[in-house]
Amino acid sequence: xxxxxTLALYHDMVTEFxxxxxxxxxxxxxxxxxxxxxxLNSFFGFTEFAHTSVSQLAHxxxxxxxxxxxxxxxxxxxxNRKTGRRIETNRVAVVTGGxxxxxxxxxxxxxxxxxxxxxxxxxxxxxxxxxxxxxHRKEGYAIDIIECNVTDFSSCKKMSRQLEKEYGxxxxxxxxxxxxxxxxxxxxxxxxxxxxxxxxxxSVFNVTRNFINHMIKQGYGRIINISSVNGQKGQFGQxxxxxxxxxxxxxxxxLALELADNGITVNTVCPGYVGxxxxxxxxxxxxxNIIAKIxxxxxxxxxxxxxxxxxxxxxxxxYITGSEISINGGLYMG
Length: 334
Prior knowledge:
The protein is an alpha/beta fold. Helix content is 54%, strand content 12%. Helix 3 links the parallel strand 3 (92-96) and strand 4 (116-121).
């Protein structure tokens, strides 16, 4: 019997073969005046493709051979080869800004919990997003990606329709996209204000508005908004960022009331300072000054934020809605 992994492998090979044929056709048009060049290009191209295909098949059949002599108990779902955990849900999760530091950990955790996960990216991130996806697929995370400008309502509408057409449903939405443009208000230009409000707050409306009707129709949904400790307490030089993140908290509480009787929960996670690669790269003395203000004496791990998101995204968290979960190491307890 051909299993899902085999089908996926063959699908990838057919796609690559089709792409190669297209390249050959293009080369024919470019090199019609030089048949020798065309023949050599085609020969070496097919040789490379054949070598890659044989290697993939050999690797696959080695896995199949091993699985045959070391069978697992028959169970429903698909095995996550990275963790050994069984994937048993049919839930689909969308994470905006999913290829960022915190977003990546959220995607990985939701995938490990058995969800099909889709991460969004913007057009200028296309190359990085492709590299990101390949890297994590090699690690066992079959995470899909989709382009979407979360600041543009029509782009979000197009994205939601595409995902609902492809997967049939979207059950979990994590609004994680965000940027900073830090200035004191007297030095802040209007474009700095709008860039942050558009990306961090308007995006939450743009994306969520295009998914909730389908969630209402199916009678199920989990919406998790990633705010910030600075949306709770404010922060010097971040009137734009703090306003946007505070607005996200108000958005969460109001929408939670609207959707409470539809099987949909809406919650906020408010991280403090998180040890993403970007934060870890700042000068040591600045980082130490930040840590000195945190009662637990360290930065948060991105996986700790992802754990909270996964908790709220779970089916058995249906009685938690309109909440804001603070993950800040005691930095703010208001």
